[in-house]
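Anyone able to model this chain together with magnesium ion?
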Amino acid sequence: MPDTARNFVGEPLLAIHDLHAWYGESHVLHGIDITVPQGTVVTLLGRNGAGKSTTLKSIMGIVPKRQGSIRLQDHEIIELAPYAIAPHGVAFCPEDRGIYATLDVKENLELPPRIDQHGLSTEQILDLFPQLRERLHSPGSKLSGGEQQMLAIGRILRTGARLLLLDEPTEGLAPSIVEQIGDTIARLKQQGYTILLVEQNLRFAMSVADYHYLIDHGQVVASYDRQTIEQHTDTLLERLGV
Ligand SMILES: Nc1ncnc2c1ncn2[C@@H]1O[C@H](COP(=O)(O)OP(=O)(O)OP(=O)(O)O)[C@@H](O)[C@H]1O
Ligand SMILES: [Mg+2]
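re: yes, here you go
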């Protein structure tokens, strides 16, 4: 594997080493190594079933069995229960977005607990996503896909997490909305958040991220920075099956 991780600038906020994960008897991650430097955007690329979501879920402690090392700053978190992992400053936005259909935007936003003083207030979240302000009293079921995604991202900012794990935030969204999600990610990065992002949309990944890992069959098979990924676009499009 070309180890561009060595060229990473800055302290790693998240360092995953030799991560294995299982669902029952099914062994799905086979020794993942990933470094996410503080203040960067990093993507996990890979085909359906490669193990991208399982990697994010392993960080949150919500995969039944895992082994290896997951370090968040100086803390080893692999043995911790999910409720004990979130206070280390990490939050997860799942692929299905997890919006409550019967609750309105404000209620959905105010659901997660604030963990520390970094947590954004409802007002601050609405400043980041002005469209949500207009929809404040609409139920989750009436939101467009883009609005749901913004709500899902906005909601995790309330916790005070500084490391955001986003699972396919652009999936199923129109190009103009994808662009808005890209702008949001860029703004969050400017504000000092660190983002680990699962993406199948290579062009989008290239536009937002500093580093990329290609995952296949539960292993990291390649990694790239902004320059090296440009030289591998054709092969990647083929490998991602898009
Ligand atoms: N809850 C589960 N129980 C059993 N097997 C699972 C479960 N979730 C995922 N798997 C299996 O684990 C492997 C990795 O799945 P994962 O969801 O991590 O892939 P992914 O890269 O996120 O794929 P996709 O692009 O389709 O979201 C797949 O073979 C999948 O079928
Ligand atoms: Mg997935």
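Residues 54 and 127 are 32 Å apart (CA to CA).
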